[in-house]
UniProtKB/TrEMBL annotation:
This is Uncharacterized protein. Pfam families: Laminin_G_3. InterPro entries: ConA-like_dom_sf. It comes from marine sediment metagenome. SUPFAM superfamilies: Concanavalin A-like lectins/glucanases (SSF49899).
Length: 444
């Protein structure tokens, strides 16, 4: 939830449907922080926020295994005026409503009271909409106070996500072994390897701490053996660093892709396959590494460095101080030519402070239609620039949000800007981001 505790000092992230959501600082004091929400000088106030279901939870959602938990603290002025939270589920952005639930009635509390609204997410849900709703009983202000609104999605097995990288040989993309990303969810995934004598390398990266595999042999050697009479070879742990583990499924394994009808199968707790042009890890393995099939070389410029003190996952993050035009340089490639097709750019960012325009990921010269820039403006607001103009903006201050997943994505002609899984803005205008030989820059 963006600005769930009103700590931006305003109602950014919320859209009014009735009345006008407002913030206050005292009488009573907030439950936490410096601000909280109330209904303003209105007889009724209703405001909403949309949260997109993360892609890695779609499988669990459609199986009916995901639960949405809205949590908040509630108070009132002398027991007057009622407030509540509501939740709705949609099959699009948003599409058709497929479910709704309102918090049970509560006599207006006179002290901050924690409340929770939990409901199973209906299958096919793609957008979750939460509401602040309050009605005035007395006076001129609508004194239904709510603070610290959060939404968490819990499943039957895991919270968070795991990335699994499979070392495969894909003849139409590379002539030597390369990496393919398999995004891990909660459903069983069968990874099938070929029948030659090469080793099969599997790397697992967990974003919610170390992968808990006390017995990796049993964890992986639980599949069928296909049509082969050769026994499945148990994987061996060859490298462990931070939350990253490298497993070798050796001997009778080989190069292959998920779905190949070859002998020897290993089951992993996961299900979705995707190909990425470049996925950069800042975990300190080989200083930093591009885990895509392309293996681009990365060069640290000026004071850009790995920092182990703060990270969203793994063992390190990229630190850019802003004092000396810090950045990471990636050589030019046609992979960065976005054209008019579909693409996704994403990262986890943690902005301590900001004074100037700062690029998260960008390419090209300013006065050129090949330029694109995924960036933060001087106020910390997330932006998307393309073909010499600002195309998508927002009103959130990332410097107040800690580690946050941000993304810009174009799909079927619609470009969307996200932060923390929440859709911030979108446009149906298709920009032709022309080709160039310019390098790719991370930060600047």
């Amino acid at each position: 939830v963006i600005n769930g505790g009103a700590e931006l000092g305003n109602t950014s992230g919320w859209i009014n449907e009735l009345g006008s959501l407002a913030v206050r600082t005292t009488n009573p004091l907030p439950f936490s922080g410096s601000f909280y929400f109330f209904g303003g000088a209105n007889s009724q106030t209703r405001a909403r926020q949309d949260i997109v279901v993360p892609a890695n939870l779609i499988t669990e959602t459609d199986a009916g295994l995901l639960t949405a938990n809205v949590r908040w603290h509630q108070n009132s002025f002398q027991g007057q005026d009622d407030a509540e939270m509501e939740i709705e589920f949609y099959d699009g952005l948003p599409g058709s409503i497929i479910g709704t639930k309102t918090a049970a009635g509560l006599t207006s509390p006179t002290v901050w009271t924690q409340r929770t609204l939990s409901v199973v997410v209906p299958p096919l849900t793609r957008t979750i909409r939460i509401f602040y709703h309050a009605d005035r009983d007395f006076g001129t202000n609508l004194d239904g106070y709510i603070d610290d609104i959060t939404l968490d999605l819990t499943g039957s097995t895991t919270v968070g996500w795991i990335s699994l990288w499979q070392n495969v040989q894909i003849t139409d993309e590379c002539t030597t072994s390369c990496y393919r990303k398999i995004a891990v969810a909660s459903e069983p995934l069968t990874v099938t390897v070929g029948s030659d004598s090469s080793e099969q390398h599997i790397t697992i990266v967990s974003t919610f701490g170390e992968v808990d595999l006390a017995n990796p042999i049993n964890a992986f050697n639980n599949g069928t053996n296909g049509s082969s009479s050769t026994s499945v070879v148990a994987p061996t742990v060859t490298t462990t660093q931070g939350s990253t583990m490298l497993y070798v499924l050796g001997g009778t394994g080989g190069f292959g892709e998920p779905g190949d009808l070859e002998p020897n199968h290993w089951n992993f707790p996961a299900a979705v396959t995707e190909r990425a042009e470049s996925v950069v890890s800042m975990d300190g393995l080989q200083s930093t590494a591009d885990f895509s099939s392309n293996g681009y070389a990365l060069t640290f410029i000026n004071s850009a460095q790995l920092d182990t003190a703060s990270k969203q996952s793994g063992s390190a993050s990229l630190q850019l101080t802003g004092a000396s035009n810090d950045r990471v340089f990636v050589p030019g490639s046609t992979d960065w030519d976005l054209g008019t097709g579909d693409f996704t750019l994403e990262a986890h960012v943690n902005i301590d402070s900001h004074a100037n325009f700062a690029s998260i990921l960008g390419r090209g010269a300013a006065a050129n239609d090949s330029r694109w820039n995924f960036a933060v403006d001087t106020n910390g607001n997330l932006e998307w620039h393309a073909t010499q103009a600002l195309r998508l903006g927002s009103s959130i201050d990332l410097a107040t949000m800690g580690w946050t997943h941000v993304a810009v994505s174009r799909n079927s002609g619609v470009t969307r800007l996200f932060a923390g899984g929440v859709l911030l803005s979108s446009t149906g205008t298709v920009m032709n981001i022309t080709s160039t030989t310019s390098e790719l820059l991370i930060g600047k």
